[in-house]
Amino acid sequence: MTRVTWFDQVDGMITRWMARHGLTLLRVGMGVVFFWFGALKLFPGLSPAEQLVKATTFFLPGWFVYVLAVWEMVIGLGFITGKGMRLTILLLFLQMPGTMLPLVLLPSAVWTQFPFALTLEGQYIIKNLVLVAAGIVLGGTVRGGYLEDRPRR
After folding, report:
1. Are 76 and 34 in contact (CB under 8 A)?
2. DSSP states of 39-105 as a string?
3. What is the per-residue pLDDT across 13-40, written as a single tens digit (0 to 9) for each?
4. CB atoms near residue 102 (< 10 Å)
5. Radius of gyration of the chain (CA)
6. CA–CA separation, 111 vs 125, rounded Å?
7. CB proximity list for 62: less than 8 A, separation 6 or greater
8. Cβ-based neighbours of 117, under 8 Å, separated by 6 or more
9. How many domains, the chain?
10. Segment holding 3, helix H or strand E
11. What is the pLDDT of residues 52-77, one digit of tens each?
12. 45 is a domain residue
C-alpha cells in the first residue's frame, strides 16, 4: 500500500490544473504578446523594435513595417481566439526567420561580444526561440493533442 502524503495530494492538484489550463494559457499569452507588439508598430516611435526592423528590412519599402505590424496582430488574434490555428502557426513560422535576420545582417546591433554577450536588442531576438518552441507545442495540438498530468505508460 502506498502512503499518499499531503505534498503528493497538493502536487497532484497543481499538476492537474497545469495540464488542464497550460495550453490555453500558453496560446492566449502568445496571442497577447504578438498582438501587442504588432499594434505598437502601427504607431511610429512606440515600438522598441521599430528601428531594428527598419534597419534590417532596408531593402523593402518603408511601409513594410505596417505589413509586419498587421501580420503580427493576425498571429496574435489567431492565438487569442484559438481559431485557424494551422494558419496562425504557419504565419508564425514564416515570420520567425525574419526576426532572426539582425543576428546576421546587423551583428553590431545584437552582440557586444560575439557569440556570448547580447545587447538588449539581441536578447529581444533570442527570446523568439521560446516563441518558436511554444508554437511547436501548440502545433502538436491542432489534431486534438493535449497535456496529461499522468500519462499512461
Report:
1. yes
2. HHTTSTTT-TTHHHHHHHTTTS-TTHHHHHHHHHHHHHHHHHH--SHHHHHHHHHHHHHHHHTHHHH
3. 999 999 999 999 999 999 999 999 999 9
4. 24
5. 19
6. 11
7. 54
8. 111
9. 1
10. none
11. 999 999 999 999 999 999 999 999 99
12. yes
- In which domain, by residue range, is 43 found? 14-100+130-139
Q: Is residue 95 part of a domain?
A: yes
Establish if 25 belongs to a structural domain.
yes
* Model confidence at 144: pLDDT above 80: yes
Q: Is residue 80 part of a domain?
A: yes
Residue 1's pLDDT is 54
pLDDT digits (tens, 9 = 90+) for 86-138: 999 999 999 999 999 999 999 999 999 988 999 999 999 999 999 999 999 99
Torsion (CA) 145, 146, 151, 152 in degrees, nearest 10: -40
pTM: 0.91
d(CA 10, CA 62): 54
Q: Report how far residue 35's alpha carbon sits from residue 29's, in angstroms, rounded to the nearest whole number.
A: 10
DSSP string, 117-151: EE-HHHHHHHTHHHHHHHHHHHHTTTTS----SS-
